[in-house]
Amino acid sequence: MKIKFVVLFLLMATLSISNFAQKKGDKSPMPVGGMEAVAKKVEYPNEIKGKNIKGQVQVMVTVDSTGTILATKIYKALHPACDSAAIKAVRSVKFKPGEKNGKKAVKKVIIPINF
Predict the structure, then answer these.
(1) Is the pTM of this model over 0.90?
(2) Which of 34, 37, 83, 90 has the greatest number of CB atoms lying within 10 Å of its CB?
(3) 8-27 pLDDT, tens digit each
(4) What is the C-alpha to C-alpha distance for residues 21 and 54, in angstroms, rounded to an integer?
(5) What is the Cα gyration radius of the chain?
(6) What are the residue boundaries of the TonB C-terminal domain, all occurrences included (predicted)?
């Protein structure tokens, strides 16, 4: 079951990861280990088990030029417990910094988390 969840998560993440406007030489920050690293950290909240709550939380992450997370914000909410779990998962992984004009820079990226 967990393998199916991870595979589904990776597929959805690949299809729906949102990068802000990109120009040649620009790259969005990404989790070290890819989206799989985030998927492994997601914990389905106990308080919503059995309530059939499904959907996607999108977390906007601001990452500095060293890969440090400066801020996280819920871009698309689902349920407060899911929102908290998504932020916790995103904050638990390290990030590769983004690039602007080929140089490391503060950048934002939206990370989708499926529940």
Answers:
(1) no
(2) 90
(3) 444 444 434 444 556 777 99
(4) 29
(5) 14
(6) 29-115
